[in-house]
Structures are given as structure tokens and as C-alpha cells.
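Quick one: structure for this chain?
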Amino acid sequence: MPNDMAEMPHSLVLDEREHLSVTGVRDVSSFDEASIVADTSRGLLVIHGSGLHIERLSLDMGELVIEGEVSSLEYEQERSAGGGFFRRLFG
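Got it. Here's what it folds into:
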């Protein structure tokens, strides 16, 4: 991944809980009407809601626009190296 992606500014703008604009997006790993998972320059962002759909996605520009009812925005903690399934299972 190019170094400039790590330095990409990250912001969130939520209007009326129905229109979310996100910058600093590197990738979208999963999406459905209830949740969208986006890798951003500031960590993994999970958007929960209902009727969610991706209005626009431009990975070149690092932009994501989502329409639908947003109920929560959550950043997941970075997973450390070696933090695979068995490490989590056996601690």
C-alpha cells in the first residue's frame, strides 16, 4: 500500500443520520443493508444501520458516501500480528 494512503486525511460527516460521507477510505471489506465495514486511514470503521447502501465509492480519492438510516459508527481496535483465531481462542 502506498505511503500516501496512510497519510490520507480522515473525516466523517453525518447529515440527519441518513447521509454519511467518509474520507480516508482505503477499502470496503463487506457491506449489506445492516452494516458496512470500511478500512480507513485511521482504522477499521463499522457502520451499523438499516437500509444502508453505498451511494458512491472512490478508492482513488478515498471517498465513501452512504445513504440509509445510520444507527452507530464504531472503530474496531487494530489487530496485532499473531492475533489470529487460535491466539484469540487460547489467549
